[in-house]
Structure formats: structure tokens, C-alpha cells
Amino acid sequence: MPATVASTTKPPGSLAARWSLIFGLAAPSLAVGGAYLASRELADPFIAFRIFGLALPIGVLGLVIGWVGLLRARGERNPRAKRASFAGSILSVLTLSGVVGLGLPSAGFPLINDITTDLADPPQFLKVAQLEANRGRDMSYPQSFAEQQRAGFPNLEGRVLAVAPEQAIDRARAALESLPGTEVIDVDFAAGRLEAISVSRVFRFVDDVVVRVRPEGSGSRIDMRSKSRVGKGDLGANAARIEGFMLALR
Predict the structure, then answer these.
(1) Closest to 158 (Cα-Cα) out of 200, 120, 130, 204
(2) What CA–CA distance (Å, rounded) separates 158 from 160?
């Protein structure tokens, strides 16, 4: 009987090593798979991003279980399990470093997804609001975002150019078209409004953009608004787009 028990008992750390390796392989697969599905437009961007995000908890599990496996297989108790636990831990650490590294720069941004340079009178969408994807959506700027925007992006503001509105609109269009993934869909010289759609490079998130041009003194004031279609937050993408536009405006 003792011999039978000994033959069926697994060496210490074997189970932890197996699961550490499974999670260690699953974590980068989820991260790469989510990004691939989104970039190839094989899945809804929000679903693909959730798949990508699953790499974080799976990576943590792989790392923790890997440490357990290393502890249980320490010394010469189970060299094979020790190697597997180490491999699972390394894969998890690499995945966590990549995912956290991508998200860390935006960790301090407020959980809002609609940004404007004019909080008192935000530019309004017209053509974009008529698109099929926006039917039934409230395209007004949520005033509850204003204080959070002031705190998160205190230096975000419009610009005044020393040119007539017609020239300012031409310059605004050129600046919009220089932004990655941005397509201008409407230019209204009479109303002083330009509207565009911007698609993120990897996850293919779609944001709606409007630029307003008004006379101010002998020049023109240019304000901009950028709004995400999905998600509660935007990881700072809309503010970064406005900043990029203002820098490109000449």
C-alpha cells in the first residue's frame, strides 16, 4: 500500500508549475490577440480591448502561482517544476511590463471621454451627429465633465490666429488632416465649422471631432472638441489629439 501511494503522489510544485506555465502563455496570447483582432477589425474595438486587458489579471495569476511553484520545488525537490515555474513567471512578468507600461502614462487622467477647449460654450456636432453610428446618441457636452477636465488638463485651450476666418478654416483643415487616422468629413465655411472622424491606430476606436472658427478682433479664434464613441474614459486620447491639432495649426 505505501508503494502505491508514493507512485500516485505528484512531486512537489508540479501542479503550480503547470498552471504558472499555462497562465504565463495565456497572458501574452491575450495581449497580442486582442490587439490583432482590433487592428484587423475582426472584433469590436471595445471587445478586443477587453481581451487585451485580460492579460493583466492572467499575468498576475501566472506570476503568483509561479512563485508558489518555485517555493515548493526549491532545491532539488523537483527541478522540472522549478524550470516550468520560472518560465511561467518570466512570461508573466514580460506581459505585465508591456501592458502596465502602455497604460501607466494615462493612469492619472480623469475618467471622461469628451474634451473641449471651450467649456463655457463647447463646439457642437452637426454632420457627425447625423451619421448612422451616432443615431440616438446624446452628442451634447456633459457639463459634469467640466471640473474634471479643468483638473486633468488645465492648460488645454483654443488658439487665436491673426488671419481671417476663411484662411483660418483652411489652416484648421490642414492641421486636422495631419493628425494620424483622421478624416475630415465636412467643412462649412459659412458656419465656421469643420467635422472629422479619428480612428486610433491599434484598437480602432472611433472618436468624433469638431473644430469651430469664429472672428475675434482682426483675427480668428479656433476651438476644438473631441468625443469618444465608446467607453467611460479615453486614456487621455482626446486631449492628446487636441494638443496635437493645436501644435500643427500654423
Answers:
(1) 120
(2) 7
DSSP SS3 for 160: strand
Question: What's the CATH superfamily of 114-248?
Answer: Kinase associated domain 1, KA1 (3.30.310.80)
Would you say the pTM of this structure is higher than 0.90?
A: no
Q: Is the per-residue pLDDT at 76 higher than 90?
A: no
Phi, psi at residue 103, to the nearest 5°?
A: -90, -20
Residues 226 and 159: their CA atoms lie apart, in Å, by 16
Domain regions of the chain by residue span:
8-106, 114-248
DSSP 137: -
Q: How crowded is residue 224: how many other Cβ atoms within 10 Å of its Cβ?
A: 30
Q: What share of the chain in percent tops pLDDT 70?
A: 96
